[in-house]
Amino acid sequence: MSHDTLRVRLLAFLFLIPLALYAWSAVQAFRVDSTLRDERFMRDWSASARNDPDAAGAIPRHLFRPAYGVEGHLHQFAEDAEAIRRDHPWLALRGWLAAFGKLCALASALVAAALLAKLEYDGRRSMRSQAYLLGHLAPAWRRLGRLVPLHAGLLVAALASQLLYEALWSYSHWHSHGFVALLFSLPLWLLLLGGLLMLRRLRGELLPLEEPVLHLLGRELDRVAAPGLWQWLGQIADRAGAPLPDHVVTGIEHCYFVTQAKILLAPRGIPLEGRTLYIPLTYATVMSEAESAAIIGHELGHFAAGDTAHGASLSLLQRQVRLRIERIAAPEDGRVGLLGKPGLWAALYFLERFERAYLHWNRRQELAADKVGARVAGARVFAIALLRTCALAGLIERLLASPQTRNLVHALTDHLRGHSLELDEQDSARRLEHPFDSHPPTYQRIADLSLALDDDLLRQARRIVSADDTQWLNRLLDAGHGESR
C-alpha cells in the first residue's frame, strides 16, 4: 500500500468517525432542546388561548392537528406538556449524555490531530537524522500506546453515551412505540461491544516494548576452542580496519551477521553481550575461503562504523513493533470493528513512517560496509560472494522444506557436488535477511561497487562446490590443536 493511500485512510478513520459521532450527539442535543421548546410553546399558547382565543398565535406545523379546534389543542397541549414535565429528569440526563457525546467526539478528533502531527514530525526528523530515529522509536511507540487507546476509548465513550441516550428515549416513549427505536439501535450495540474488545486488544498490544534480546541457536567458539579461526578473523579485521568480535557463534539458522544486542544462546540459554559474529555452517561450507572472508569483512565493517552499537537494538525493536501491529491487524476472530479502524491505521502509519526511515539509514550502512568487504578480498570476489549467498538462500529454503532433509549441511554439500547453483534475475534482486537487517537488492549493491553483473560473475557464483570449499573451515578449526598435541 502506498504512503498516500495509507495516509488518506488514516485521515478518514481518525477524523470522519469522530465527526459522525459528533453530528449524532448534536442531533440528540437538538432533540432535547426541541422538546423543551415545544413544552414552553404549548404552555404559553394555552395561556394565551384561554385569555383570548382569537389572539393565540399560529401553531408550529409539527404540533398542529388539523382536526382539532382551539379546545382540542388546549386539551392535547395540556396532556403533552404534562408528559414532558414528568420526563424532565430523563430529559436532563439525555441532555447531559448528548453533551458528553459531543465532548468525547471532539476530544477524539483533537487526540487524532495531535497523534498525526507527531507521527509526521517524527517521520520527517527520522529521515534527516539517524540519531533521532535511534532515540525516538521506543518513546514514539510509548506515545502511540497512550494516544491510540485514548482515541479509541473516547470513540467508545461517545457511542456508549449515544446508545444510552436512545435507550432512555425508548424508555420514556415506550407506550408510543419507543421500543422500535431500541430495535433499530441493536446493531450499534454490537458495534459498541466490538469497540470495547478492540480497546482491550489495543491496550494489550501497545504496551511498552521489551528489552531487545536475540534468541539464537548455535555454538560459541572461543579463542581456546578455535585458535586458528580467531587468527584468521584477526587478519580479516586488520584488512578491514575493524575491531574483532567478542564472541563467535556458529549455527545453521541464518546468514552471516554481526550484532551488539544481548543474545541468549540456545539450547542452554547462555547470555552473550558485546560484539558477536555469527558464522553459518550452511554457507561457510560451500563457499570459498576468500568469499567467506569478504562477507565477514563486510560484517566487521559494521563494527568499525559503529552501526551495531544501537542498530541491532533498533532492528529488534522495529521487529517487535511490526509483530504487534500484525496481531492488531489480524485478530483471532478475523475482524477489526469500525471503532478499531482508527487505531489500526494509526499503528500501520506509525510502522510505515519509521520503517521508511529505518530502511533509508540501513541502506546507507550496508553500502558502506560493502566497501569494507571489497577491500578485504577484492570487489569481484565480494560480488561473487553476494551472488552466491543469494542463490544459496533459495536452495537452503527448499532443503529445509523437504521432509527428506536430515542433516542440512550434508544435504547442501552433497547437492552442490553434482549440481551448480541456480541464479537468475530474481535471485540478484533478493534482499539478504538476517535477524537485524534487510539489505538493499544485490544487483544494486554490485552496481554500487562499480561492477557489471556479467556472465563471468554469474558463472563463478553458480559453480559446483569444490573440495577446498568444504574443507577450509575445518582446517581453521583444527589449526592450533595439532600444534598443542
TrEMBL record:
UniProt membrane topology term: Multi-pass membrane protein
GO CC annotations, alphabetized: plasma membrane
Gene Ontology MF terms: metal ion binding; metalloendopeptidase activity
Domain Peptidase M48: residue ranges: 285-450
UniProt cofactor(s): Zn(2+)
Compartment(s) of residence: Cell membrane
GO biological process terms on file: proteolysis
Keywords on record: Cell membrane, Hydrolase, Membrane, Metal-binding, Metalloprotease, Protease, Transmembrane, Transmembrane helix, Zinc
Organism of origin: Pseudomonas aeruginosa
UniProt keyword GTP-binding, yes or no: no
The keyword Membrane appears for this protein: yes
InterPro entries: HtpX_protease (IPR050083), Peptidase_M48 (IPR001915)
Entries under PANTHER family matching the protein: PROTEASE HTPX
Taxonomic lineage: Bacteria, Pseudomonadati, Pseudomonadota, Gammaproteobacteria, Pseudomonadales
Domain of life: Bacteria
Protein's name in the database: Protease HtpX
